[in-house]
Amino acid sequence: MSIYHLDHLQYLETEAIHIMREVAGEFERPALLFSGGKDSICLLRLAEKAFRPSELPMPLLNIDTGHHFPELNTFRDHRARELGARLIVRTVDDAIARGIALPAPGEVSRNRLQIPTLLAAIEEFRLDCCIGGARRDEEKARAKERFFSFRDSFGQWDPKNQRPEIWNLYNARLNPGENMRVFPLSNWTEQDVWEYIRREKLAVPTIYFSHRRKCVRRLGQWLPVNELVPPKPAEQVRELVVRVRTIGDIISTGMVESPADTIDDIITEIAAARVTERGSRADDKSSEAAMEDRKKAGYF
Amino acid sequence: MDDGKSTLIGRLLYDSKSLMEDQLEALERSADITGGGQVNLANLTDGLRAEREQGITIDVAYRYFATPRRKFIIADTPGHIQYTRNMVTGASAANLSVVLVDARAGVIEQSRRHTYLTALLRIPHLVVAVNKMDLVGWSEARFLEIRAEFEKFLPRLDIKDVKFIPMSALLGDNVVDASANMSWHPGPTLLQHLETVHIGSDWNLNGFRLPVQWVNRPNTPTNPQLHDFRGLSGQIAGGIVRTGQKVMVLPGGQITTVKEIHTYDGPVAEAFCPQSVTLLLEHDLDVSRGNMIVAWDHHLPGASSDLRANVCWMHSRPLQPGKKYWLKHTTHSVQAVVTGIDHRLNISTFEEEPSPPGLGLNDIGEISLRTAAPIFFDGYETNRLTGSFILIEPGSHATVAAGMLFPPTEVVRAESTEFVI
Predict the structure, then answer these.
(1) Which stretches of chain A score pLDDT less than 50?
(2) Are A182 and A148 in contact (CB under 8 A)?
């Protein structure tokens, strides 16, 4: 074997940088979705690798559900400032106030309401492309998604009629109002993401590391106690040593009991894990096609 | 017809302990609801509702798993003929393809088509997995019969490495663990083979090619040193580049020198395919997206606006000679018109049918094209990245064809010193 060889992470990196640059080359008004979560942290580093020493040729966009972990938003704002990037935040609360997003009676989760909020932001800024950090190994509807995922003028995904994607030739052509979602991390696994964070020495929000937190047991998960998740009368509040494996909303993200307080520990823990990352996300468990249905409606 | 492909992948994940408890739970949940209590391993990969309803795979699904020896990306591609385009999507970048044959049915059209596509796309390794051996009484004679059928047409295809493995995906024989029912098979099992097959470099290290993706020019440099920074960013599509090397910029044909190979992690002395880099050149030339920087050596690319290629047609609207399409080749898009269809392949006989009236969905044929401006390319057999293109239909913007270029008849001609700055 010659020295002209890329290891797995280096291969994933060059593939993702190529995709980032195709976006910059092919689209007029792209944005990069940045939540402060581990996947989008990798996306930002890949954007730096693709575009430095220039400014990032796209703003960062975040849809704030109003149910975010505060640590996540702090990290998001800090990281955007550090990079000198423009950060656009659009909130579900605002979308509800403007009547764009309408909660169903009794609907507590903001998951579905992200969709109209995102679509409104796409319209407001006339975005033709959004780069997201979704990975195919997360979920089986995601496993079907292309790198360049075409959405019609309603933001809908049509899984039965996706554009063929051959070699590294991406068809980025759109008619007005249509939109592309681009996923540079498609081929990355959870393990790859953490190994990349380690290799690149990237900072991540503190909630990924082990800490003490008050939790209640609900539907087989440890939910963090906070003003949105007050303990019910019959529930016993326990203070546990936990961390998050995946970050969703604060009302639906299960905390994992874990002593892992370094990136190395996290990588070791994931390697031995017997449940998938999304196993701690209540939003995906509602039905076998939960993700497919949300994606068809315009979700990531 | 169900040849058990999704079951095989399910088995591979299951037996290599790559499945997680919540995935198994979900499997069992759907078994209770729809499967009459029996776990269906195919439900692991058939991720769309329509696929589970019909029990078939419609689109490529990607699966990831790792063993201590290797990391794998599985592209689970549809077998049904109407989804050939999805199969090409999944297979175009693969190192190895597994073609599944039902031991009861033997070689059918689908087996021939997939084997042919493996050869056409130049996937270096092929495994013929003879599945459902349990339903033919684990018969070695049947296995050898199927193998002989394959060996009748394999010599007509250019595939370097072919391996035959008898198995039962449903029961797990020879997928991960060796079969007790087929002691006549010396091995390896499928996973053993996947873990050990030599994946040589798929990347061409001869003939440096850098299709320019993006011009890196800091707008408001706070650093005065960046004031004149003008980088040409792209993924190296072939060969190796070194600082100080002479390169030619196409289409202009100017010769200059590589001043620096810039990366985010600092400058490097050399870089190779498929790394993503940013080149700084000695001279300030007019270079933009879609241009190509190549080594000024004896590996020059072809240059022509008259092209010949094999194409796989991917749209229900048939190819129309005389109609204009967008041709996307590397980072460059150019208008193209199909000037002729030289032949269409009959997949059952591998015969070439001369001068067909058109090419329909999933047809494979040889065509001639003319582009509005010359493109700079290599034959697909020497370089997958500079030898391939897609056709896009104007208006609908549908990707209608995948093309593999024939080797060039004429290479770029530098009019010696005339171009040298």
Answers:
(1) 1
(2) yes
Instruction: Give the strands of the sheet with A60-64, arranged side by side.
Output: A87-91, A60-64, A30-33, A129-131, A179-182, A148-151
Give me the residue from A49, A137, A173 closest to B392, CB to CB. A173
Architecture of the domain whose range is A8-196+288-296: 3-Layer(aba) Sandwich (3.40)
* CB contact (8 A) between residue B20 and residue A292: no
pLDDT at A300: 63
C-alpha–C-alpha distance, residues A284 and A294, integer Å: 10
Q: B188 with B196: CB under 8 angstroms?
A: yes
Q: Which range marks the domain in which residue B54 is found?
A: 5-196
Claim: this prediction has a pTM higher than 0.80:
yes
Q: Which of B399, B404, B405 to mutate to test the interface with A (most CBs of A within 10 A)?
A: B399
Spatial contact of A169 and A118, defined as CB atoms under 8 Å apart: no
Nearest to B21 among A6, A274, A288 (CB): A274
Helix axes A70-83, A38-51, angle to 10 degrees: 10
Work out the pLDDT band at B1, boundaries 50, 70, 90: very low
What are B22-40's pLDDT values in tens digits?
777 777 766 555 445 556 6
Q: What is the CA radius of gyration of chain A?
A: 19
Give the pLDDT confidence of A201-235 residue by residue, as tens digits.
Answer: 999 999 999 999 999 998 888 999 998 999 999 89
Note whether B268 and B127 are same-domain residues: no
CA angle A144, A150, A154 (to 5 degrees): 115
**pLDDT above 70 coverage of chain A, percent:** 93
- Helix (H) or strand (E) holding B247, with range, is strand B246-250
Q: Are residues B362 and B400 in the same domain?
A: yes
Chain region(s) in chain A for CATH 3.40.50.620:
8-196+288-296
Name residue B147's amino acid.
Answer: R
